[in-house]
Amino acid sequence: MKLSQLIPGQSGIIKEFTDLEMSVKLMEMGCLPGEKIIVERFAPLGDPIAITVSGYQLSLRKQEASTIILHS
Question: At 72, is the pLDDT very low, low, confident or very high (cuts 50, 70, 90)?
Protein backbone atom coordinates (compact mmCIF):
# COMPACT_ATOMS: atom_id res chain seq x y z
CA MET A 1 0.00 0.00 0.00
CA LYS A 2 1.18 3.53 -0.77
CA LEU A 3 1.08 6.42 1.70
CA SER A 4 -1.09 8.39 -0.73
CA GLN A 5 -3.84 5.73 -0.35
CA LEU A 6 -4.34 6.30 3.39
CA ILE A 7 -7.06 8.52 4.79
CA PRO A 8 -6.66 10.95 7.74
CA GLY A 9 -6.21 9.08 11.01
CA GLN A 10 -4.64 6.01 9.43
CA SER A 11 -1.01 5.07 9.96
CA GLY A 12 1.59 2.68 8.65
CA ILE A 13 5.24 1.72 8.80
CA ILE A 14 7.53 2.80 5.96
CA LYS A 15 8.81 -0.23 4.04
CA GLU A 16 10.55 1.19 0.97
CA PHE A 17 10.47 3.83 -1.77
CA THR A 18 9.72 3.53 -5.48
CA ASP A 19 11.77 6.56 -6.60
CA LEU A 20 15.48 6.60 -5.74
CA GLU A 21 15.92 10.35 -6.21
CA MET A 22 12.85 11.17 -4.13
CA SER A 23 13.83 8.64 -1.45
CA VAL A 24 17.01 10.59 -0.65
CA LYS A 25 14.97 13.76 -0.11
CA LEU A 26 12.38 11.94 2.01
CA MET A 27 14.99 10.21 4.16
CA GLU A 28 16.68 13.56 4.84
CA MET A 29 13.31 14.74 6.20
CA GLY A 30 13.03 11.75 8.58
CA CYS A 31 10.99 9.35 6.44
CA LEU A 32 13.18 6.32 7.08
CA PRO A 33 12.28 2.66 6.57
CA GLY A 34 10.80 1.32 9.82
CA GLU A 35 9.40 4.71 10.93
CA LYS A 36 5.72 5.00 11.83
CA ILE A 37 3.89 7.54 9.71
CA ILE A 38 0.44 8.99 10.48
CA VAL A 39 -1.78 10.85 8.01
CA GLU A 40 -3.13 13.91 9.84
CA ARG A 41 -5.14 15.73 7.16
CA PHE A 42 -5.48 16.70 3.51
CA ALA A 43 -5.59 20.21 2.10
CA PRO A 44 -9.07 21.23 0.86
CA LEU A 45 -8.31 20.14 -2.72
CA GLY A 46 -6.55 16.95 -1.57
CA ASP A 47 -2.96 18.10 -2.09
CA PRO A 48 -0.70 18.40 -0.07
CA ILE A 49 -1.02 15.82 2.71
CA ALA A 50 -0.03 16.60 6.32
CA ILE A 51 1.70 13.67 8.02
CA THR A 52 3.47 13.05 11.31
CA VAL A 53 6.77 11.19 11.15
CA SER A 54 9.80 11.10 13.48
CA GLY A 55 7.94 13.30 16.00
CA TYR A 56 7.16 16.25 13.75
CA GLN A 57 4.60 17.27 11.15
CA LEU A 58 5.49 17.34 7.47
CA SER A 59 3.57 18.23 4.32
CA LEU A 60 4.03 16.14 1.19
CA ARG A 61 2.56 16.41 -2.26
CA LYS A 62 0.46 13.42 -3.31
CA GLN A 63 3.09 12.58 -5.93
CA GLU A 64 5.77 12.41 -3.22
CA ALA A 65 3.51 10.38 -0.93
CA SER A 66 2.85 7.88 -3.72
CA THR A 67 6.56 6.94 -3.74
CA ILE A 68 6.39 5.69 -0.11
CA ILE A 69 5.42 2.02 0.22
CA LEU A 70 4.07 0.89 3.61
CA HIS A 71 4.03 -2.53 5.26
CA SER A 72 0.65 -4.20 4.81
Answer: low
Residue 19, classed as helix, strand or coil, is coil
The model's confidence at residue 37, banded by pLDDT at 50, 70 and 90, is very high
Q: With b meaning 16 or more CB within 10 Å and e meaning fewer, what string describes 27-66?
A: eeeebeeeeebebeeeeeeeebbebebeeeebebeeebbb
Amino acid at 4: S
d(CA 43, CA 18): 24
For the chain, the 3-state helix, strand and coil shares in percent, each to the nearest 5, are 20, 40, 40
Domains, the chain, in order of start with CATH, read 3-70 (2.30.30.90)
User: What are the φ and ψ backbone dihedral angles of 47, each rounded to 5 degrees?
Assistant: -150, 125
